[in-house]
Design a protein that fits this description.
With 423 residues, the chain is mostly helical. It has one domain: MFS general substrate transporter like domains (Growth Hormone, Chain: A, Up-down Bundle). The protein has 19 helices and no strands. The longest helix is centred in the N-terminal third of the chain and has 36 residues. The protein is globular.
Length: 423
């Protein structure tokens, strides 16, 4: 008689209370990271109307893109800088500094009266946002056991949905009083007390420091072809996701607004309906995609899961652009649109820390994600040109071809499923 097969323990069976606490703290920081980025997209209309003292759409669109570009540049600089500092001085102090950066400078936006005030503050906020993600992603990967790493990192990145929802609700709540939305951004400064009292440096980082290895060195990152290759390919992979986020994922709001206007809705009504469609409905589907990435990556591998998301995105974008004829139909399809166009982003938190050794983990992770952020500024610029020169639906479909580039990049990256973190 055959022995009964023992059911394998769930992935979370070995996770300790402290590890769950680290995940909660890292996710809370990331939630407010995303809030700081999304709140601008949601309240930029009334903010620019106020500061420009005009309702001219072309002027508002120009400055909206300028501030988005500054945000991408700030995120790139901050992510790379603070990633290196986290490898040199530790995860805990660097995470505290990044949270203070984005929360305090976001709060100061409440007092902005000139365009240059907003530009400078968006750059500084982005520095903290880019840095916090790099540090938190490395911390979660190092603290959790190998079997739970993909699931935990996926949950960490999926918490971004809460940031988008919070921003959407804040935008609906404040209406044209945009300054109060930024004042909410001061709240995460309280997280610093939690970080300082509860987080400990990971054993892998302490061991590398004890062995007096050169920590957070860009020379070591790009001087060794093993790590340089991973960094370059990681940047390209992140560029696809971040570039399509600005050009394609966020277009769910524009597509909905245009659909409502075509169907006879007043612009103010269309604006509110589009905010709800993107900020709540599409983002819910995106959250499911982010949560699904971890279990899929644990079961099938990192590269196959990335490929699934890219292929799904290529398929769903033209359907979303041309099939819905009513607001209800759009609300039904936007969750699928969000699932595939946003879901791949959880893979960056899972995959990038697995490509680099402990002494370069936060540095390499920050370079990959935020180098992609910098290159995605080019996609943002191209997106603006393309969307102004043709029908929005055709423009979004053409911009979604960037997902094909991601499939090509995946052919040259290693599979890390089942492998220990490189040390």
């Amino acid at each position: 008689m055959d022995e009964p097969q023992l059911k394998p323990a769930p992935w979370y069976a070995e996770v300790t209370g402290y590890q769950w606490l680290v995940l909660v703290i890292a996710s809370a920081g990331w939630v407010f990271d995303v809030f700081e980025g999304q709140i601008y997209a949601i309240v930029s209309g009334p903010m620019l109307t106020d500061l420009l003292r005009t309702t001219d759409a072309s002027a508002k669109d120009y400055w909206k893109e300028v501030f988005l570009a500054l945000f991408l540049l700030g995120g790139t600089f901050g992510g790379i800088l603070f990633g290196s500092l986290a490898d040199r001085f530790g995860r805990k102090p660097t995470m505290s500094v990044t949270i203070l950066f984005y929360s305090l400078f976001s709060g100061l936006t409440f007092f902005a009266t000139e365009l240059w005030h907003v530009g400078a503050l968006r750059f500084l906020v982005a520095m903290g946002v880019g840095g916090e993600w790099a540090v938190a992603a490395a911390l979660v990967a190092e603290v959790f056991p190998a079997r739970a790493r993909a699931h935990a990192s996926g949950i960490f990145h999926a918490s971004s949905v809460l940031g988008t929802w919070t921003a959407a609700l804040a935008g609906l709540w404040v209406g044209a009083q945009w300054r109060y939305a930024y004042l909410i951004g001061v709240v995460p400064a309280l997280l610093v007390l939690w970080v300082r009292s509860k987080v400990e440096e990971p054993e892998s980082w302490r061991q590398a420091e004890h062995e007096q290895k050169r920590m957070g060195s860009f020379r070591d990152l790009f001087g060794d072809w093993r790590w340089a290759r991973s960094a370059i390919l990681g940047i390209l992979l992140a560029t696809v996701g971040l570039g399509t986020f600005w050009a394609v994922t966020l277009a769910g709001q524009e597509l909905t607004r245009n659909l409502l206007v075509r169907n006879g809705a007043e612009l103010a009504v269309a604006e509110q309906g589009a905010k709800f469609a993107y900020g709540i409905v599409e983002t819910a589907g995106g959250g499911l995609g982010l949560l699904a990435f971890g279990p899929l990556a644990a079961r099938f591998g990192r590269r196959p899961t990335f490929a699934l998301m890219h292929i799904g995105a290529l398929a769903i974008v033209p359907i979303t652009c041309y099939v819905p004829q009513t607001y209800t139909q759009m609300l039904c399809i936007l969750p699928v649109y969000g699932f595939f166009t946003l879901g791949m982003h959880a893979g960056y938190a899972i995959y990038f820390p697995e490509l680099f050794p402990g002494r370069l983990r936060a540095t390499g992770t920050g370079v990959c994600f935020n180098g992609g952020r910098l290159l995605s500024a080019l996609a943002l610029w191209i997106s603006g040109i393309v969307k102004r020169s043709m029908d929005l639906r055709l423009a979004v479909c053409l911009l979604s071809s960037l997902f094909l580039v991601g499939l090509v990049v995946l052919c040259f990256l290693p599979e890390t499923r089942g492998r220990p973190l490189p040390e």
